[in-house]
């Protein structure tokens, strides 16, 4: 089969790879219909390189069941599916408590096991999630990032009537805008330095957009909220700068949840850090998209709201490309050669 294999930073190759084969009775092989680029893929491509040289890459996808092991009962050949890409060990302290996102040996396809930038991918049956007819393959390829977002929002116990600030209007931030509204947020404030992203955030449900370029975000937000701040801050930009600024946006007794990953040291100046202490903030880290029973309610909840049309991901998709365009596309993204939102690859194209 054809696949995108990562050999090193900025060394991605479209080439032949072995077809996956059933090794265990609980294995499922999926014919990949659509696979999307994750923000973490960009950082690994540009800076970090692969866990294993030449590994088939990618973990956000949807497809059709092609083969199943003899013990598989939850899906059958021909089913339309997506799948949780996370692989947990099942034996560590945290797995034994059902805290799978904290697994000591947590991995994801595309790291130590072949991923979904390929014609076929293999996963355990428990990872596979069936799709209703109303959810197309393009939409379903974003079930994984949506599950990441709702996993974090669950931690905050968001309530109807909360005011919410979302920092960063990439895929995670735009999904967070919609999830905040689904949870009943009164006002959603989207923050970014790109006006086009802020307009899209408002199209998808944000009540206000704040361009934070060259300003202190908390000054503008507090002006707009009557000097109160917001109940919940979602940091989804993954920038060292915004990761520090996030503490300044919450009201007294408010909550801050971090979904973005800053690939650099976060230097928190005194004013920002004092907000944690003086305002008695609750601060949450959120990792991955899994809980018990595995893979967690995040997945079925996402599929449900996609089916109901409450999660609209189509405006976020900017590119529909063949898999062989992968190497050139990643180069364009890191060189900022054009506007890229969610990029989808089609192995059959």
Automatic annotation (TrEMBL):
Residues 8-345 form the Enoyl reductase (ER) domain. Its cofactor is Zn(2+). Pfam families: ADH_N, ADH_zinc_N. Keywords: Metal-binding, Oxidoreductase, Zinc. SMART domains: PKS_ER. InterPro entries: ADH-like_C, ADH-like_N, ADH_Zn_CS, ER, GroES-like_sf, NAD(P)-bd_dom_sf, Zn_alcohol_dh. It comes from the Bacteria. GO terms for molecular function: oxidoreductase activity; zinc ion binding. The keyword Zinc applies. Coiled coil: none annotated. Belongs to the zinc-containing alcohol dehydrogenase family. This is L-iditol 2-dehydrogenase. It comes from Propionispora vibrioides.
């Amino acid at each position: 089969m054809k696949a995108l294999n990562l050999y090193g930073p900025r060394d991605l190759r479209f080439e032949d790879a072995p077809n996956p084969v059933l090794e265990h009775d609980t294995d499922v092989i999926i014919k990949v219909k659509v696979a999307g680029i994750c923000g973490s893929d960009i950082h690994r491509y540009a800076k970090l390189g692969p866990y294993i040289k030449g590994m088939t890459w990618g973990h956000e996808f949807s497809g059709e069941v092609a083969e199943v092991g003899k013990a598989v009962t939850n899906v059958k050949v021909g089913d339309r599916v997506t799948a949780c890409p996370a692989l947990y060990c099942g034996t560590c302290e945290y797995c034994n408590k059902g805290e799978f996102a904290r697994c000591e040996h947590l991995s994801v396809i595309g790291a130590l096991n072949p991923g979904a930038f390929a014609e076929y991918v293999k996963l355990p049956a428990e990872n596979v999630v069936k799709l209703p007819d109303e959810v197309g393959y393009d939409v379903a390829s974003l079930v994984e990032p949506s599950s990441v977002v709702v996993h974090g929002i669950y931690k905050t116990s968001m309530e109807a009537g909360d005011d919410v600030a979302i920092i960063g209007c990439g895929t995670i931030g735009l999904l967070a805008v919609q999830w905040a509204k689904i949870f009943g947020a009164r006002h959603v404030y989207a923050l970014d330095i790109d006006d086009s992203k802020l307009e899209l955030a408002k199209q998808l449900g944000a009540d206000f957009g704040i361009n934070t370029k060259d300003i202190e975000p908390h000054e503008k937000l507090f002006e707009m909220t009557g000097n109160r701040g917001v109940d919940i801050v979602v940091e989804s930009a993954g920038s060292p700068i915004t990761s520090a600024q996030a503490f300044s946006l919450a009201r007294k007794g408010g909550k801050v949840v971090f979904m973005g990953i800053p690939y650099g040291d976060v230097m928190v100046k005194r004013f920002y850090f004092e907000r944690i202490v003086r305002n008695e903030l609750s601060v949450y880290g959120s990792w991955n998209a899994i809980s018990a029973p595995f893979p967690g309610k995040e997945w079925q909840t996402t599929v449900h709201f996609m089916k109901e049309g409450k999660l609209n991901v189509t405006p976020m998709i900017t590119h529909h490309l063949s898999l062989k365009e992968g190497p050139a596309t990643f180069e364009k993204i890191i060189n900022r050669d054009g506007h890229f939102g969610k990029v989808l690859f089609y192995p059959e194209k």
